[in-house]
Design goal:
Blueprint (H helix, E strand, L loop, with lengths): L5 E6 L7 H11 L3 E6 L9 H8 L8 E3 L4 E2 L2 H7 L2 E7 L1 H9 L5 H8 L4 E5 L3 H5 L1 H12 L3 E2 L3 E4 L5 E5 L3 H13 L8 E6 L4 E2 L5 E2 L6 H12 L3 E6 L11 E4 L3 H11 L5 E4 L6 E3 L18 E3 L3 H8 L4 E8 L3 H11 L4 E6 L11 E2 L1 E5 L4 E3 L3 E2 H15 L1
Parallel strand pairs: 1-2, 1-5, 5-6, 6-7, 10-13, 10-15, 13-14, 15-18, 18-19
Antiparallel strand pairs: 3-4, 8-9, 11-12, 16-17, 19-21, 20-23, 21-22
Helix pairs in contact: 1-2, 1-8, 3-5, 4-7, 9-13
Bound molecules: flavin mononucleotide.
Length: 397
């Protein structure tokens, strides 16, 4: 959910400010870009050097960047840059000023300029937290739409035990992700996506494979997750990376893919089979590297198990989506496959076109429904194609 998002982390003068370094780490490993604003008093608790190094961006505190040159830090641009603002830890002082609409610090002016969702994680001593004015201020921020990440009960820096402790960094990130996911159309739905090629061994060093890069399947897994789904990605060998919010199962052969798919698919509400699974494998795999010999040689092939066919026959309410890629008579072949495999819809990949198909970052597809209704899409990035396919699934679900 945080992948590719611009996050503005605002750190204020609390003893819990050291936790902001862990928050930055978690944001970055979730794929976010992070910029940090610190209040003047926060610098007494953790150094800008630490947070600047971790966030890979200069830390901002003042309106003025270079007094002599008349250059200022633009809080308005920063407010526009941010997809999300997180104030953690948020002191009683900063919370009060936010509630009143004061703008006497760079942090407060940026807060007033931000149009994105704002998350506030208070941290303070128990009595400060329980004080009526702090409670009223937090209520007011919440009524205006800011999301409050409640403080936790526990040991406080003052030596007291009670409420007011900053939520742990992992809990803060979880709260944000859960909030961003709420209201997404695929929330509560489990979707399985297959990606990449399969490798069918000939001997310990050689295999039969294909040119699938896995890019389309990984883009589909990400798009399904962004739409709120719980995603299982079964992938053949590829160098694509998926966020750790996606449950990834790595396989190598068509047989591995078959076994993994049939184990998972009963639990799914939708299955998107975008992997390029081998139709044939060497009938016998040599234990030893096959030696070079004079004259031609041949490899006997055997059919692999047809996992799409299995799922089409055994599905119980799942939306089943297949892919087709042909060098000739593509649409006709795709329609036959749709029917034969009992799919809900099929995505035909155009391969005879510049920029489309295996290895490319773009693709041009035609979606053909059960009723043979065809929707042609333009050449688009695989991310956009993935969003179109997920939108089609939404129509079915
Ligand atoms: C050692 C120490 C720890 C503090 N911890 C907190 C705290 O956890 N929460 C809080 O609201 N204020 C805390 N304060 C008080 C704030 O630092 C003070 O109110 C300051 O003005 C906050 O400024 P800021 O909101 O601009 O960062 C602490 C002060 C000291 C000296």
């Amino acid at each position: 959910m945080l992948n590719g998002k611009n996050v503005l982390l605002c750190v204020t003068g609390s003893i819990a400010a050291y936790k902001s370094s862990f928050i930055i780490r978690l944001l970055i490993t979730s794929g976010a870009s992070v910029k940090v604003i610190m209040t003047e008093s926060a610098k007494g608790f953790i150094t800008p050097l630490t947070l600047g190094t971790l966030s890979k961006n200069p830390v901002l505190t003042d309106f003025i960047k270079d007094e002599d040159a008349g250059i200022w830090n633009n809080h308005v641009d920063l407010g526009i840059w941010a997809d999300l603002m997180l104030i953690a830890p948020a002191t009683a002082n900063t919370i009060a000023k936010m509630a009143k609409g004061e703008a006497d610090s760079f942090l407060l002016a940026t807060y007033l300029s931000a149009k994105c969702p704002v998350f506030v994680a208070p941290a303070m001593d128990r009595d400060m937290y329980l004080h009526g004015s702090t409670k009223d201020n937090l209520d007011l921020l919440s009524k205006r739409g800011d999301k409050i990440i409640e403080s936790q009960f526990g040991e406080l820096a003052s030596g007291l035990i009670g409420e007011g402790r900053l939520s742990e960094p992992e809990e803060i990130i979880d709260s944000i992700v859960n909030e961003l996911r709420s209201g997404k159309p695929l929330l509560g739905k489990r979707i399985m996506v297959t990606a990449g090629p399969t490798f069918e061994p000939i001997d310990p060093v050689r295999f039969i494979g294909n040119r699938s890069s896995g890019k389309m399947g990984f883009a589909l897994a990400e798009a399904a997750y962004q739409a709120g789904a719980e995603v299982t990605l079964i992938t053949g060998p590829t160098n694509q990376q998926a966020g750790d919010y996606i449950r990834r199962i790595d396989v190598e052969t068509a047989e591995d893919m078959y076994q993994s798919c049939i184990t998972q698919f009963q639990d799914m509400q939708a299955v998107i089979m975008s992997a390029a699974i081998a139709d044939y494998r060497p009938a016998n795999v040599s234990d030893q590297k096959i030696k070079k010999s004079e004259g031609p040689s041949s490899i006997e092939l055997a059919r692999t198990k047809d996992v799409l066919h299995y799922m089409g026959e055994n599905k119980m309410g799942q939306i089943l989506v297949g892919f087709a890629m042909e060098t000739e008579n593509g649409i006709e072949h795709a329609k036959n496959k749709l029917k034969k495999k009992n799919l809900d819809f099929i995505v035909y990949n155009s391969i005879n076109e510049e920029g489309a198909g295996f290895q490319h970052d773009t693709n041009r597809v035609t979606i053909i429904g059960k009723d043979n209704k065809m929707t042609n899409f333009e050449l688009k990035s695989k991310k956009e194609v993935a969003e179109d396919i997920i939108n089609e699934i939404l129509n079915y679900l």
